[in-house]
Amino acid sequence: MDRRGPRCPPEDCAAEVDLARVEAWLLRAGYPVPDHPDPQVLSLPLRGPHPTFRLHIQLFPDEKLLFLQINDYLRVDEAETTGALVLLLTQLATINYELLLGKLQLNPRSGEISLSAELQLDDGLGYRTFAAVLDHLTRTAAARHAELLRVARGGAF
After folding, report:
1. Is the model's pLDDT at 2 over the cut of 80?
2. For position 68, which CATH number holds?
3. Disulfide check for 34: which of 44, 56, 72, 139 has CB 3.0–4.6 Å away?
4. Is residue 5 part of a domain?
5. Is the pLDDT at 102 greater than 70, yes or no?
6. 74 and 148 Cβ atoms separated by less than 8 Å
7. How does DSSP assign 38-96, residue by residue?
8. Nearest to 153 by CA among 44, 76, 94, 101
9. Distance between CA atoms of residues 42 and 36, nearest Å
10. Quick check: 156 pLDDT over 70?
């Protein structure tokens, strides 16, 4: 048995990951053509039954890391009262504890809440792993948004 793991076709596996490969995989998975706001960043809208979120994918080649982040998700200033803010922050911590993949993050300067995941690229990356992580991240964002918005508006969680 090969100790390096299962073999897969070149279009499905990349020993060295670059943004061209990531973009090809995004298109293959049915996502729209992304923007390139920076040489190491892809950005595209995520539309659904929720407000339009924005997916940013950033490659950190020296660190061998692919960072996926859903932005335009929620802001702490959407909390209508101090009590709602406390509940919102508590709910963020609770969800992070529950999540095995992906984490909600709060930018203390802007107040923006985002959802992100990191893919370590030391041994390359396969399409199935990339698509599964992206699918999980987008489904989690959609599923949790209404709940977090309800809490921010003073509802229970």
Report:
1. no
2. 3.30.1460.10
3. 44
4. no
5. yes
6. yes
7. ETTEEEEEE-SSSSPEEEEEEEETTTTEEEEEEEEEEEGGG--SHHHHHHHHHHHHHHH
8. 76
9. 5
10. no
Average of per-residue pLDDT across 74-86: 90
140: its two tokens: 């989690």
Q: Has residue 56 got a pLDDT over 80? A: yes
* Residue 20 to residue 17: CA distance in whole angstroms: 8
Q: Is residue 74 predicted with pLDDT exceeding 70?
A: yes
**Does 20 map to a domain?**
yes
- Residue whose token pair is 């499905």: 12
Is residue 115 situated within a structural domain? yes
Residue 130, judged by CB atoms within 10 A of its CB (0-12, 13-18, 19+), counts as: buried
- Beta carbons of 87 and 134 less than 8 angstroms apart: no
> Which tens digit of pLDDT belongs to each residue from 117-136?
999 999 899 999 999 999 99
DSSP class of residue 81 equals: S
Q: Which amino acid is at 23?
A: E
Name the pTM for this structure: 0.86
Domain of 129 in residue numbering reads as: 13-152
Q: Are 96 and 113 in contact (CB under 8 A)?
A: no
- In angstroms, the CA 58 to CA 146 distance is 27
Domain total for the chain? 1
Rg from Cα positions in the chain = 17
Decide if 53 is inside a domain. yes
